[in-house]
């Protein structure tokens, strides 16, 4: 068992051995990870991996069977009110009292937390661009507007941690882009840590600095997004479209440090160091190989995700 | 403490911002209006004064029965509507314990029920005054206020029970159904079982305290103090179950 003591003050969220069992079956099984201030972390996993259960345990909506969650050093289990005051959340769709106006709904949450001023309500609604719709009843809101009001309520009490479960669920592409930009702006402007789950991997890729992959309730891996190796030495996959692949292959095999992965009539995939690409192009050109396209073959988060979780198996 | 008053304000607004909020009060106005009109036209025997009219109409067996029904309708929704709207998720991730949140909901359900009792009582007196303009009858203010108190106690007991059913079932319909059904069937059940002395421990045998003024005691040997103790035990039981379940429940 890991001890739950926190030594690093920049750790905002700490999960230690978090476990949820329902009827003897472990939905979440000994999950441990930390999130530091200002980090945007994605929680990934196939359907039924326990993402939502984990997030609900973090905010105390679901009790935990074992382990603990600390938020800014306070246990959600034993010190709920002290811990939860640092958290803002949207768990699945944001829901409001439909017969009240957006403003009345925000006032509800203002009254529940000490120290939220009227000026803060104004500030938050401006941040999400809702100042003009605030005196309409929520039942007249579009889903996008409700999402924005959801973010506004989550930010109201100046949390240090945002928990967002599928925040882009049900939004159209424009709404998703908008949402992503809000979150990025918020993370920068307010310096808060964000834990976000989504099944849209491309979304996570664009939004997060780190992803945590879980499967069947267990921690699988964590990975930083963005460049980690020095790009010069990095071996990358290149796809070439050429006039005569056989000829090109003959030329390439005469060069050092290039590995041919696959060849078809006019297309070939090779592995090459970043810094050797200009030499390759010059070599091919002088040998009279016609080059139509040079493209990098990128392994997307999706490919990696599939590899890690063995596809989207339904457990 | 400031925080808790905020919770109470929130719960009151959740009730009062609904369009249906005034309907309950409007129903009472209409019913007492109709009663006043009917009494004015028919002028039945034995009712000779404002107080006679007011004391008689707010009884559970008369227009008073509406009050607990309306109170139960609101109490059933207090927790279940949060589930229906999905707002329970936002409600429970604030720096407030679940006990405090539930306490605020229960208190406002009771306050609302009492507001209906007071409204009915005021309407009864006003309507009675319009019809009889004072007059002299058998009823006293003591009769009137004890009927009003019985109505309040009856309403509080059924509001508490409905509140618990709402938490257990998370269903507005089930809570309303069970709450109103037990009001209807309760007194019938007690009547059928009145020859067994065990019946006196039934909740429904004790809910109407006005029986102790009219000597229509449901089971032999019951006293006002006995009934009050039984009611307190039931209310304590309903509340313990409510708070224990609400505290532990996973919001999935």
TrEMBL record, chain A:
Pfam families: ABC_tran
Keywords, sorted A to Z: ATP-binding, Nucleotide-binding, Transport
Taxonomic lineage: Bacteria, Bacillati, Bacillota, Bacilli, Bacillales
Descriptive protein name: ABC transporter ATP-binding protein
Domain of life of the native organism: Bacteria
PROSITE patterns in alphabetical order: ABC_TRANSPORTER_1, ABC_TRANSPORTER_2
The keyword Protease is assigned to this record: no
Gene: bcrA
A single MF term (Gene Ontology): ATP binding
From TrEMBL, chain B:
Keywords recorded for this protein, A-Z: Membrane, Transmembrane, Transmembrane helix
Entries under Pfam families matching the protein: ABC2_membrane_4
Transmembrane segments: 21-42, 62-85, 106-132, 144-168, 175-198, 224-246
Lineage: superkingdom: Bacteria
Keyword Chloroplast: no
Protein name in UniProt: ABC transporter permease
């Amino acid at each position: 068992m890991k001890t739950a003591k926190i030594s690093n003050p920049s750790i905002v969220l700490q999960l230690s051995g978090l476990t949820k069992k329902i009827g003897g079956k472990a939905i979440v099984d000994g999950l441990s990870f930390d999130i530091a201030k200002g980090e945007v972390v994605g929680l990934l996993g196939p359907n039924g991996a326990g993402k939502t259960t984990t997030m609900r345990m973090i905010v105390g909506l679901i009790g935990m069977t074992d382990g603990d969650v600390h938020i800014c050093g306070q246990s959600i289990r034993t010190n709920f009110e002290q811990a939860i005051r640092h958290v803002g959340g949207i768990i699945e769709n944001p829901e409001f009292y439909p017969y009240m106006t957006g403003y009345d709904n925000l006032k509800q949450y203002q009254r529940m937390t000490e120290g939220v001023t009227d000026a803060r309500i104004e500030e938050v609604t401006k941040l999400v661009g809702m100042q003009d719709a605030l005196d309409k009843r929520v039942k007249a809101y579009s889903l996008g507007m409700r999402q924005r009001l959801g973010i506004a309520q989550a930010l109201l009490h100046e949390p240090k941690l945002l928990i967002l479960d599928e925040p882009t669920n049900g939004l159209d592409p424009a709404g998703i882009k908008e949402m992503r930009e809000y979150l990025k702006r918020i993370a920068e402007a307010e310096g808060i840590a964000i834990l976000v789950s989504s099944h849209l991997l491309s979304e996570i890729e664009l939004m997060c600095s780190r992803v945590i992959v879980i499967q069947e309730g267990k921690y699988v891996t964590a990975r930083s997004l963005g460049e980690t190796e020095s790009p010069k030495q990095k071996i990358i996959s290149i796809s070439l479209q050429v006039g005569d692949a056989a000829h090109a292959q003959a030329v390439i095999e005469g060069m050092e440090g290039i590995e041919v992965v696959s060849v078809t009539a006019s297309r070939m995939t090779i592995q090459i160091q970043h810094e050797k690409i200009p030499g390759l192009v010059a070599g091919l050109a002088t040998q009279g190989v016609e080059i139509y396209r040079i493209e990098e073959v990128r392994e997307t988060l999706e490919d990696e995700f599939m590899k890690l979780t063995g596809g989207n198996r339904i457990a | 403490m400031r925080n808790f008053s905020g919770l109470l304000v929130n719960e009151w607004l959740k009730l009062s911002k609904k369009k249906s909020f005034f309907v309950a009060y409007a129903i009472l106005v209409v019913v007492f209006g109709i009663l006043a009109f009917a009494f004015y036209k028919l002028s039945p025997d034995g009712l000779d004064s404002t107080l006679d009219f007011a004391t008689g109409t707010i009884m559970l067996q008369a227009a008073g029965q509406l009050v607990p029904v309306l109170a139960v309708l609101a109490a059933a929704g207090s927790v279940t509507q949060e589930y229906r709207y999905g707002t329970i998720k936002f409600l429970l991730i604030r720096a407030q314990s679940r006990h405090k949140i539930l306490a605020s909901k229960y208190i406002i359900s009771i306050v609302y029920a009492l507001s209906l009792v007071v409204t009915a009582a005021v309407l009864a007196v006003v309507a009675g005054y319009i019809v009889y303009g004072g007059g002299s009858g058998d009823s006293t203010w003591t009769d009137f206020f004890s009927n009003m108190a019985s109505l309040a106690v009856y309403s509080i007991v059924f509001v508490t029970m409905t509140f618990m059913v709402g938490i257990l079932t998370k269903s507005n319909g089930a809570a309303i159904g069970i709450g109103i059904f037990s009001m209807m069937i309760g007194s019938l059940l007690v009547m059928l079982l009145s020859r067994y002395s065990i019946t006196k421990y039934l909740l429904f045998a004790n809910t109407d305290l006005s029986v102790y003024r009219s000597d229509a005691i449901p089971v032999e040997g019951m006293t006002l103090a006995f009934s009050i103790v039984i009611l307190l035990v039931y209310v304590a039981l309903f509340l313990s179950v409510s708070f224990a379940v609400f505290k532990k429940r996973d919001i999935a």
